Amino acid sequence: MANELAPGRKLKTRDLAPSDLADLKPRSKIWIERSGEVVMSDWRMALLEAIARTGSLAKAAEEMGVPYRSAWQKIKESEERLGMRLVDTQCGGADGGSSQLTEAANDLLFRYRQLSEGISELVDKRFRESFC
Amino acid sequence: MANELAPGRKLKTRDLAPSDLADLKPRSKIWIERSGEVVMSDWRMALLEAIARTGSLAKAAEEMGVPYRSAWQKIKESEERLGMRLVDTQCGGADGGSSQLTEAANDLLFRYRQLSEGISELVDKRFRESFC
DNA sequence: GCGCGTTATGATACTTTCTGCATATCGGTG
DNA sequence: CACCGATATGCAGAAAGTATCATAACGCGC
Question: Is B89 helix (H, G, I), strand (E, B) or coil?
Answer without folding.
Answer: strand
